[in-house]
Design goal:
By secondary structure, the chain is of the alpha+beta class. It has three helices and eight strands, in the order ββββββαββαα. It binds zinc ion.
Length: 178
Amino acid sequence: MIAILRDDEIPKPPNVLWIATPKAGKTLRYLCYAPKHDGYWTHWTGKVTLPCFGDPRRCHGECNPETRRWYGFIHAWGNTENKQVFLQLTPGAVRSLRSQLAPAASLRGLSIDVSRGNGRNAHVSIHLAELVVRDPNRLPPWIDSEPSVRHFWKIKEMDAKWDRSISFENGQPPSQVG
Ligand SMILES: [Zn+2]
């Protein structure tokens, strides 16, 4: 008789959260879980955002600096989404948020209102909702954004594609990409 795989341990959900972006004509409230933002470089192709690997062989347009865009991500509770998310923000929005705080102040426990105007390049504004500060010790733990960001940008698939192309060029087995 062939053994079947039994395991009484309930599987943990993957450490991947929804990526939330400011919505046109709306003000959305987020309760920050992370003490600070995480930042990543990307490339804007004119149609889509792709991750930057800092490597001309792997990046869109050989890592052309003119297409590079930075985004900050904050682990937060989304009041509208009604779940934990990573809020994706432009440099201007992160700068605006930081400018409302003391230099090294933690975001954890702060509620922020994120508004976006109408139109494609509409300005995003952020305001602290100071009356709704929560005790940081009573919030769920904050997590790193990288698993969610990697999932969002389909980096796993890109790794596989890149490995295939490199192995084809070199005539060698693909290298391990961690
Ligand atoms: Zn790049």
